Amino acid sequence: MATNQTYRIGIIGCGGMGRSHSRSWQKQPNINIVAAMDIYEESAKRLADEFDVPATYTDVDEMLAKEDLDIVSITTWQGPRSEATVAAAKAGVKGIMGEKPMSASLGQADDMLEACEENDVKLVIGHQRRYSPANIEIRRLVAAGAVGTPTTLHHRGKSHAGLLNTGTHAIDSWRFQLSDPETLWVVGTTSRTTDRWERRTICEDLCMGLVCFEGGARAIYEGDLPEPPVPMPVIAGTEGQIRNGDNGTVLLQNGDAKGWQTITPPPEPKNQFQELIEWIEGKIPTHRGRGEQARYTIEIMMAIYESLRIKNVVNMPLETKELPLELMVNDGTLPVLEEGKYDLRTPFEGQTRKR
């Protein structure tokens, strides 16, 4: 494909992430953002005014039919993201830049991948931490054996955010730092006694997951667990450990030196938008954030919920395609004990409770 092609870009979902994607696209050469779509017309017009976008829509299919787009950014909430992705793939775009979490269920993620494969569309999900110099350096160090065989990883999620919101970056980072291993099994527990939602998807009050990756490394996810927090290394292994330092540095402790070594990672010249263009043009064989990688993250998060549903360890691959948390809410396994429906991100009409 000629490298001097100008790509026609459409934005689907014109909130904060839609504006973030628009800023990033405008930094790329040979890019023209030609259309913005949001179910709320005022949101589409606000983005169009800010980024000088000539056309706005409130219907995805209408925009896809009229605009002959090369690439779309799909920055909606996770619930409708699958439907928009499938529609864009069938409309003949060359590439799709989605946001995280990839979807609200494993079945939705599979629908997205199937539609993109059938229509030869490059699908990327915005796990931008794969471009973090610190994460790239950690991946290099682990692969080089700097901490021996990896044994444990840990992440404590941001409070009052939910697994699908904060877990997606954490889990994807784990896999990236370990050079993207297969997942062997997951065990987890979940509590939901309040009527809690996050961007209109059912959300837990708290959860904990233990993930076993190929090679045996265990990763611990904590979401809204009780205090006190316990500081943990990013990765520990049989011969050392790695922590995050100040100002993007990486701290390494192993048998090669006494105490901690401070490593300043080199800058990363690429970003996920640039890499999508290169992937479309055939300059690189794949993309760090391709949809298949994001599916692993969705599968792990769903397995944390599924472990409570089946009251057992979930051996991968996960077979349940629905959102297990929703199944448990609907069948009465997780009854609401404190009335008052509330959304952590965008309040329902008349909502008074925040968390």
Model description:
- The structure is a single chain.
- This protein has 355 residues and is of the alpha/beta class.
- It folds into two domains: 7-127 and 271-288, NAD(P)-binding Rossmann-like Domain (Rossmann fold, 3-Layer(aba) Sandwich); 130-267 and 297-343, Dihydrodipicolinate Reductase, domain 2 (2-Layer Sandwich), CATH 3.30.360.
- Helices cover 34% and strands 25% of the residues.
- It has ten helices and 18 strands.
- The protein has helices at residues 16-26, 41-51, 60-67, 78-91, 106-118, 133-143, 163-177, 272-280, 291-310, 324-330, and strands at residues 7-12, 31-37, 55-57, 71-74, 95-98, 122-125, 150-156, 183-191, 194-198, 201-202, 206-213, 218-223, 235-237, 240-244, 250-254, 261-263, 314-315, 338-343.
- The strands form three sheets. It has a nine-stranded mixed beta sheet with strand order 16-15-14-13-7-12-11-8-17, with helices on one face. Strands 3-2-1-4-5-6 form a six-stranded parallel beta sheet, with helices on both faces. Strands 10-9-18 form a three-stranded mixed beta sheet, with no helix packed on it.
- α9 packs parallel to α10.
- The protein starts with 6 loop residues before the first strand and ends in a 12-residue tail after the last strand.
- The model has no long low-confidence stretch (mean pLDDT 96).
